[in-house]
Amino acid sequence: MTSDRARIIAPPPLIGLTCILLAFLAHHFKPLPIFQTRSAFQIAAGILLIVIAIAIVASARSIFAAHGTHLNPYRPTEAIVTTGVYRFTRNPIYIAFLLVLPAVGLFANSFWFLIFTVLLGFILHFGVVKREETYLEDKFGDAYRDYCRRVRRWI
């Protein structure tokens, strides 16, 4: 018997936090500054990225709740959500995760966070998104395939 959930490699927030921790660790042992000196621009840009990420996650969460489905990928998906931010991208929460790493990189003035943003994107794409898509296509069939034709995977 198969369970009614996507077969992702790990919880996406844990993957994101691991990338942040690894970037801090790399920065500790081999600093790679983005800028020569810290500036107000770095802080403002980092704050802007964090605010955008929070807004995306809050919007996605409320839309999921309105549709009676869960953000937790270990729970069954009850509906294909196609409204709000999901009209523009099929993975807004993962895009939010990908905004957090460069934001922290700006705060820490470390290029390592940009490197780990790329790694996070790769892991999310192949270890989470592709697996979720397989699950959703198996569960919802043509309705999900039609959504995929209308809305981009990322941006």
Describe this structure in words.
The protein has one domain (12-150). It contains 5 helices and no strands. The protein is mainly alpha-helical. The model has no long low-confidence stretch (mean pLDDT 95). The N and C termini lie far apart (36 Å). It has helices spanning 12-29, 40-66, 92-108, 112-140, 142-150. The protein is elongated and about 50 Å long. Helix 2 (40-66) runs antiparallel to helix 3 (92-108).
**Computed structural class:** mainly alpha
Q: How many E strands?
A: 0
What multimeric state do the chains show? single chain
Low-confidence stretches: none
| Average pLDDT taken over every residue | 95
Distance between the termini: 36 Å
Shape: elongated
Q: How many separate helices?
A: 5
Beta-strand fraction estimate? under 5%
Q: Provide the helix percentage.
A: 55-70%
The radius of gyration computed from the alpha-carbon positions, rounded to a whole number of angstroms, is 17 Å
- The SSE order reads HHHHH
How many strands, which pairing sense, and closed or not: the largest β-sheet? none
Number of domains: 1
Brief characterization of the structure:
The chain is built from 5 helices and no strands. The chain has helices at residues 12-29, 40-66, 92-108, 112-140, 142-150.
